[in-house]
Amino acid sequence: MNSQRPVNLDLRTIKLPITAISSILHRISGVILFFGIAVLLYGLDKSLASEQGFAEFKECMTSPLAKFVVWVLLSGLMYHLTAGIRHLIMDLGIGETLEGGKLGAKLVFIISAVLIVLMGVWIW
């Protein structure tokens, strides 16, 4: 097929719409949650194995790195939750237009940003 259309494969110059960015971030947050569950399950297993394991896990969770990891996981959860609620609302037929999709994506960013900041305050 000989197409005369220009092809732009430079990812640095492609301008994605806000709805596409929201969708991509929803998928990325799902991947973060998938791998984060493994980390949290390891900590749960270690804490339930013995009193010494619980003490070690409790001491580990006081470090800034562990708090950051938990904050990243909670941030992924908050974004994934708000974007998922947006998808459920769109399944009901609300916000399916182009303007509604853009508004929904903006609301997801705003609400999740507020929740992420609140999670950071709660952790630290």
Explain briefly what this protein structure is:
With 124 residues, this protein is mainly alpha-helical. The chain has helices spanning 18-49, 51-60, 64-91, 98-123. The longest helix is centred in the first third of the chain and has 32 residues, at 18-49.
Give a structural overview.
The protein has helices spanning 18-49, 51-60, 64-91, 98-123. Helix 1 packs across helix 3 (64-91) and helix 3 (64-91) runs antiparallel to helix 4. The protein has a single domain (18-123), classed as Up-down Bundle (3 helical TM bundles of succinate and fumarate reductases), CATH 1.20.1300.10. With 124 residues, the chain is mainly alpha-helical. It comes from Denitrificimonas caeni. One of its GO terms (cellular component) is plasma membrane. InterPro entries: SQR/QFR_C/D (IPR034804), Succ_DH_cyt_bsu_CS (IPR018495), Succ_DH_cytb556 (IPR014314), SuccDH_FuR_B_TM-su (IPR000701). Belongs to the cytochrome b560 family.
Tags for this model:
124 residues, mainly alpha, 3 helical TM bundles of succinate and fumarate reductases, 4 helices, 77% helix, elongated, membrane, transmembrane, cell membrane, Succ_DH_cyt_bsu_CS, iron
The helix-strand sequence is HHHH
Quantity of strands, as a count: 0
The poorly predicted ranges are: none
* Helix run count: 4
Mean pLDDT: 93
CATH superfamily: Fumarate reductase/succinate dehydrogenase, transmembrane subunit
The proportion of residues in beta strands is: under 5%
Quick one: CATH class? Answer: Mainly Alpha
Termini distance?
58 Å
How many domain regions? Answer: 1
Using the alpha-carbon principal axes, give the shape: elongated
Helix content: over 70%
Assign the structural class, choosing from mainly alpha, mainly beta, alpha/beta, alpha+beta, or little secondary structure.
mainly alpha
Radius of gyration: 20 Å
Function: Membrane-anchoring subunit of succinate dehydrogenase (SDH).
Keywords: Cell inner membrane, Cell membrane, Electron transport, Heme, Iron, Membrane, Metal-binding, Transmembrane, Transmembrane helix, Transport, Tricarboxylic acid cycle
Subcellular location: Cell inner membrane
Binding site for heme: 80
